[in-house]
Amino acid sequence: MSANGWQLRNDERSHMPQMKSVLVTGANAGLGKESARQLALLESTERVYLGCRNIEKAEAAKAELEELTGRSVFEILQIDVMDMDSVRAAVRALPSPIDGLVMNAGGMGGPTPRTRTREGSTQLFAANVLGHALLVDELIAAGKLEKVAVYSGSEAMRGVRQVRIKRLTFETSSSDEFASIIDGSWLGGAYTAMAAYAASKYVAALWIASMARRHPSIRFVTMSPGGTSGTAAADGMQGFQRILVKYIGKPLMVALRMMHNVETGAARYVNALTDERYESGVFYGNAADAMIGDVVDQATIYADLANEDFQDNAYEAIHRFLPSR
Known about the structure:
Number of strands: 8
Largest sheet: 8 strands, mixed
Helix content: 40-55%
CATH class: Alpha Beta
Number of domains: 1
Shape: globular
Radius of gyration: 18 Å
CATH architecture: 3-Layer(aba) Sandwich
Strand content: 5-15%
CATH topology: Rossmann fold
Distance between the termini: 40 Å
């Protein structure tokens, strides 16, 4: 399966779902902004909601996107996925149902990734997963998500040999073990932001698969953008790690053809959103021996992703931390 999607015949395009309105979180920069640009260029698109926490940055992104695309289809929706009140307010502010959702916001948790939110989650987990989980629940409860939800996945959880990220191991993959990932106690004194990030993406991919079975009328897909240059992900890392990745690692990986550009990374999200042949409940990402190129079902590399008990354990653990309605 190509990273850029299948080459569709004209007669096949009529069977693809029309994305008239889409919400993209983290839309003021990087992959989120580029996804919004690509979506606006689709003939069927009537509205792209730019989900951003900073209004000033959102306004700048909106102006740039309108200039780049020549279209006035962008609307700002203020949302901070680390703040559950903000998530609920954003759903209330959404004027009408959306066809699609791209859950792009996240990162390494900033300078204090292990600090807990008032819900008991680490800031890192809240930014990457918990806020999006509440967003999806609230959208569905309000009847405001109609067709597709795409979550930004990462191969880090199953290990990436090329950059020496080891595969994570779990004792039980129980809801209690997943809850310890959410509250930051899982790694004890050996906590690192990278391991916590990888673990959060594992829990998220399982949660998405559980949601696919619970809500069969909506297509849920986890899609990795792959090794992507030109993103702001390194800015959320800490200290020397940020310098190493941003100024040494990324340029070297681009030179070695281990990264593609932000346009290709964002195209993966857009393809997952608009092409029904990306199956609900599946996590698509790089092949085991690659960091870019064609995407494959990650359960063929890491079988635990297909375990329905683990999927439901992740769902249950996440909902322990979500505030009640």
